[in-house]
Structure formats: C-alpha cells, structure tokens
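fold-stage: in
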Amino acid sequence: MSGGPARRGRSSGRAAPSDVPDVLAPGLRVVFCGINPGFVSAEAGAHFANPRNDFWRLLADAGLTPRLLRPDEQFEALRFGIGLTNAAARTTKGSGDLRRSDFDRERLERLVSELAPRAVAFVGKEAYRGLFGERPELGPQDRTLGDVGLFVLPSTSPANAAVPYAERLRWFESLGEWLEPVDRPAVRALVLDRRDRVLLVKFVDSVGQVWWATPGGGAAESESAEETLRRELSEELGLTELELGPEIWTREHTFAWMGRILRARERIHLVRVEEHEPAPTIDLQAEGVHELRWWTLAEIEAVDETLVPKRLPEFLRRLLHEGPPARPSDVGV
C-alpha cells in the first residue's frame, strides 16, 4: 500500500481482483483500509510489505497488537480483532497512478454491511478521499457507514516520512482509545395512542443517512429511569402528562454517532396516551432529529427506511396482539 495524492474517485460498484488478499472476518474491532497495493506488497501478497513502511511497527507500538507482526503473518491480525483491505485493488507504483474508477466505495459498504466491524481506519487521507470524494481531517469522522465508525490516520508509507514517527504513533494510539465504546445508559418509550399508532423520531446524520427510532435518550448520572424518560419526552415531544407503563423491551447496541463510538444500554417502557400533537421544547435538529410522526403498524411494516430496533414491526405486532410481556424482551439491534 502506498501513500501520496490520488485523484478523486467514486465507486465502480464491482470488485476487481487484487494482488493482495483481504484479511477479514465478521465482528472485528477495526478494519484498516489502505489506498492500494504497491509493487512490494503485490510481490509478497501481503499488506504493507515494504520494509520501509511503518504500519506493522505502529500497530505494535500503539498496543493494537501484543507483538510486532511481519507482513507474512497478516492473517494473525484477525486474532487481535484487526482486518485489512484496500480502497482500490489495482497495483501501481504510486497512488498518483490510480484512476477514479479504481476506487470501489460500494465494495467497502458491502463488506461493512456483511461483516459489521466496529470501525474502519483509513491509512492515509487519500484512501478516504478516493472513496468519498472529500478531504478529511485526521481522526474520527462524523460520517459513518451505518453503525460503523470511520477514523483517518496519517499514511505509514515511506513517502510520508516528513511526518515524524512520534506524530504518527500518537494518531494510532488515539485510534486505540477511540475504539473503546463510551457506555451510554438510556431510557426510551414506545408511545402508543388510542388508535394503536406509535410515535417515532426521525434521525438524519451529517451525510443523510436516515433512521426512525423510539423517543427517549441518555440518562444523566443522578437520574432514575423514570426521571430520564419524563425529561426526554418533555423535551422531544412536549409530552408532560403521562403515566409510565411497564418496561417491555431491552436493547444493547454498539454504534458510531457524531464522531464517537457508543454502547447504548436501553430500557424501553410502554407509554399510552389518548392523543398528542408533538411539540418539542428544545432544538432537536442539533441532536440530529428532523421529524416526529405517528405510524400505524401497517405503515411500519411497509417502510423502506431503517427502523431502530430493526425488528420493531415484529415486536410491535406481538405487543398489540398479546399485551406487554411478563419480563422485558431483548429486541436486538
């Protein structure tokens, strides 16, 4: 994998053969994405094989691997939750020789969707820019791929030798710290009206990804579950007169949001109202909320946009037909 400037690119939508194999598995802690294979890596069939490339040494010195791995030990990285891939498959002398069509964003999106790593770390700004067509700053990105966080590192190529090793190491260490999720206890409500419609909140992130979720949010350190939920429903919905029903569902999920990786531990209560016209008391757009609306079960079952939890139609249908469960049900992601 080589550093240096690459022309702006967009995905080709079709995977091309590569001289260097992907090192991937489901559920990895992080997948490192270089820009493309250089001649040394292609000859070795291994990522970052140029002996002057500092990648493997930086991994070890930052504590991301317990020992220094050689390029020919690349599949050992899987044992430590680390995967490897490239933004472009074609081997070139330098990344400046790449064409726009060499970059395959759709392939990376497909791999992320299928394998669900916690994060993708781009080794060099040009790997990121080649896929997304925008020049990033180093560090965590607001952009995500679904729930997967994105982080940009300095290039480890010998062509980037002007950046001191200590500076590059600092960014690798920062990545290791960022990969540890921030625990976020939260309380949410399944708000149903007298017609059994459910009130959902529409989130839109900085790059236009959309999902609908139940209202509620993170608990302050000193708050009880009821205090959290009453505060959140007042702020998000303007709903102040309510009777808190039983805890019906639980959900634990790790995801990236606004440059952080969060581990949400959610308790979801049933709240019934006769009717209610949402009237937020705070600026919800600052929190990524763009719409509030009531949904029928049929509408939820037909929606194409992402629902949180993903199995909301199934669990809502069961609740409406059978009533609240005797014990809270785990609704998954």
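fold-stage: in (second)
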Amino acid sequence: MPSNTTTSVQSNETFSTSTVAIATGVLNSNPWNCGVGMNYAEMTTVVAGTPTSFTILLEGTYDGTNWATIATASNVAGETQYATGAIPFLALRARCTAVVGGTSPTVNVYVTVSQTPFTLTAGGTSNANNVAITAPVDGNGNVKVSQQGAITDAQTANRYQSVSATGTSTAAPTSGAILASVNVFDFYYQVDVVVGFGGTAETTTADNFVLKAGSTTLYTLPANLVANSQSQKLTFFVNPGGAVALTVNVGGTGGSAGSIYKATVVATRLV
C-alpha cells in the first residue's frame, strides 16, 4: 500500500463478513480495503450459539504489515463499538483472539468506515471506543444499530437491503390516492419508480403521478397515456429527512373515467 497519497474525501463505506465460526484468527478472508485513508469506524457484531465469552478486535493498517487495534467487541449478546479516530487506516480486519463455550457459536461482523466522526443520537458519546450499544439485533435477526446511533428494529433487516411496494388503483382514482408506499428513514436512498396504466389509461391529464416523502411532493413522474403500459425506470436520489412513508400517488387531478393507475417503488439505502 502507498505510504503517501493525495485523495478526495470519500463517503462512508460498509464491509461485512459472512456468518463465520467464532474461532481464534482473522474472520474476514481478505482485508477490507478502504481505498483511501480513513480515521473512524463502527463495528457491529451479530452473535449466535451463546458463547460464554469471546474477544473480537477490529484492527487497522496503513502499510499492510503493521496492524493496530481500533475497536474491541466482547459482548456475547452483540454490540456496536466505535473507533476514536486516533489511528488512521487504509485497510481493516476482524480478528478473534479468544472464545469460550457455546454451541458452535457464529458471528457476523458489520463495519462502517468514515473520514469524519460518527454522530450518535442515542446510546452514548460519539467516537468513544468504550461506547457499546448492546443487543443490537432483534429476534428476527434485524440489525438495530447504525452510524446514527440506536434505531428501531424495523429500520434495517439488512442495513442496505431494498424495500419495495407495488399497487394498482381502483377505477378513476381520486387526486392524491396512494398507489405504492414504503417506509424509509433519515438516510440517503436510491429510489426507483415505474408508473403506468392498466386496461384503461388516463385520457385527460398527462404526467399525473407524483413521488412524495410524507406530505412533501418530491417529483412529478412522467407516464405515457397508453393502456397496459408502463414507464421506463425513473431513478431519484433522496434524503427524506426522517422516518416517513415514501409514496407514489395520483397527482393533482383525479383519474379520468375508468382509468387504472399502477406504480412500483423500490428504495435502496446508500449511506
């Protein structure tokens, strides 16, 4: 790895292991290469198999040879730990140094890195390496902790998993009728939308679809006034500013007689 480099600022990046046995040694098969120098990291452990105890280190390197511990996880219920930012790194590894007991215990390790400090809205003081948010996973395996602190179970089954919905209106839907809806949170999303018509198309009002975050209209969506047709995929990048429903709605005019409106929305969290 180069010892001196000039780079632009890079946004957060996330790495993870597969489900691996908790055994002494490195848990990720290859080092996680950040591409540019980073200072801050967040490590979440998802544990199964009820080990009595273990120690997992998040280690960073700048030269590929010398590794330094930047965070430590040891809570058998799972937790999130933060690096202080004192040790810069270009690559990371998760390494288990000790494990006791359990029934074939396993762990998933999720790591998010950043060039800027993480901000916690709950759960402790930012960037203190002794901050622990315990039991970050609910009974369905949903990760409850993000770079923004403690959040609710529903926010991330997989932290970057897409959520989607498809809907079809009744004939001649009213203005503002919701066609498809997904719940999103205070992160950045790629939002893909497809709109169109069923057996009877709109006949009077062009582009009568809108994308909304809660009560705020974000975009007007174009659509061909053709029965049994759909638009090309429309892609937007959205920060909804909080926990809201992201919806595709009929626009400001009710549908013409017999018209059937259809929509699909897919939201994928980016950072």
